[in-house]
Amino acid sequence: MQSVQEECRECCDGRGGGDGEIKVRNRAVPVMKNGGGGREEDVGKESLMMELTRLVQKVIKESSWWERKGVDCSILTASFLCLPPAFLLLGSSQLLWFMLGMLLMGLAHAVINVKGTHLASHGALSESQTWGRFWAIFFIEICGSFSAEAGMHGHIKMHHAHTNVIGLGDSSIWKVPFLPRIVYLFIAPLSVPVITPLVALAHLKGHSLGVVVRTVLMIALGLYSQYWLLINISGFRSVHGALFCMLVCRAMLSVPYIHVNIFQKLDKEIGP
Ligand SMILES: [Zn+2]
């Protein structure tokens, strides 16, 4: 079993999430833990993993550039293109246009935050390691207000390496069992934009000073950029108004996001 998990990690460390560079080291002799019976089981799992990898690579080989990268890059580009009109609409004195600007910015932020950070954490946005690193910092730290190191470790080494293993591979990070159900489902998720950078800071413990300083600066840059644009482009006159607008836009889709997260976990626990 252990060898299969290691293989999974290597597969993910091979930065193979979206663009097909899955690298699996074929270990002929799996790690023994349970005597002879365990060995047969391990060999079976090992060959299943190899079979899965072979099928994934076959699909990737048969896919076009558009299927592998084009669709995702177009969606991300469209989201970034929504931002200028959103900032301009937020400067409108007409309630309807203002609300439309809010909606547009909330949707764009959610797509950039979820899709961009996911692709970047897999290194799927570029073949180059340097550019992959750049995109990870840009999407996870500047756009997502989180730590690139913690995000990639949590998603690649924990979530994908232990898919469907509750407590290790489930992506349910929203665990606040002492809250009443309604508060937990509909009110508390609205605080996610505030909690996220704080959790990121907590994850920086043990990292080098350079990583800590970079992460803090990048998160601050992302938050300040949006604030600056709201003041200077949208024409917000009060600090509180701009900050409240940022909170609403960033929290807008956190309720459905948390719901999907919870139901995904329930599906794994209860099964079909
Ligand atoms: Zn993933």
UniProtKB/TrEMBL annotation:
Q: What InterPro entries does this protein's entry cite?
A: Fatty_acid_desaturase
- Spans through the membrane: 95-114, 134-152, 182-204, 211-229, 241-260
Q: Which UniProt keywords apply?
A: Membrane, Transmembrane, Transmembrane helix
Signal sequence: where?
Answer: none
Q: What is this protein called?
A: Fatty acid desaturase 6
